[in-house]
Amino acid sequence: MIIVGSVRPGRVGLPIAEWVRGEAEKTGNFDIDFVDLLELGLPFMDEPLHPRLQQYTHDHTIAWSKRVAAADAFLFVTPEYNYSYSPALKNALDFLNQEWWMKPVGFVSYGGVSSGTRGAAALLPSIVGLGLVRVGPNVELTFGGKQVVNGVFEPQEKELTILGHELAELARLATGLKPLRE
Q1: Please, is 39 exposed, middle or buried when counting C-beta atoms within 10 Å of its C-beta (0-12, 13-18, 19+)?
Q2: Which residue in 136, 58, 123 sits closest to 94, CA to CA?
Q3: Rounded-to-integer distance, Cα 118 and Cα 141, Å
Q4: Residue 88's CATH number
Q5: Per residue of the chain (182 residues), what is the pLDDT tens digit?
Q6: pLDDT value at position 10?
Q7: What is the span of the domain harbouring residue 67?
């Protein structure tokens, strides 16, 4: 599953995520569920019971739960906002619990001079708490918006190489961790 972690107007995350999807499709290793959090439209967390119980009361949560449960790996395309993560991505994570357990996750982060790394790093306690397993290589885009030309992200060779390693590790871990979830 590729998750576009920003819902902000004028976001560059969508063209970056579309590039990621194209590269992931080229590998032939993934059946991709592409999730744009803007389109998903989750409200601010509105479930009355703790997500660990999986006793969801809202259709939007039930649908989100099914999509995340069906995924074997995740790639978050995420910005850095004010030295931290996107609230839309954190909200999407917090809606669920068990559905994330023992699945690999990678990041394609973007931002200013820090390349979004502070935002991705700020998410680490949450992903560890949810049982997600972080892959080693992560794409970090310094001023990634400058690489979006006419609505299309234009990667550099370095970014293509790193994403290739990240996708390979996601595929390996998705296969390796699956028996541990059964």
Answers
A1: exposed
A2: 123
A3: 12
A4: 3.40.50.360
A5: 999 999 999 899 999 999 999 999 999 999 999 999 999 999 999 999 999 999 999 999 999 999 999 999 999 999 999 999 999 999 999 999 999 999 999 999 999 999 999 999 999 999 999 999 999 999 999 999 999 999 999 999 999 999 999 999 999 999 999 999 98
A6: 87
A7: 2-181
Residue-level length of the chain: 182
* Number of separate domains in the chain: 1
The first and second tokens of residue 135, run together, are 């892959």
- Token output for 49: 């019971």
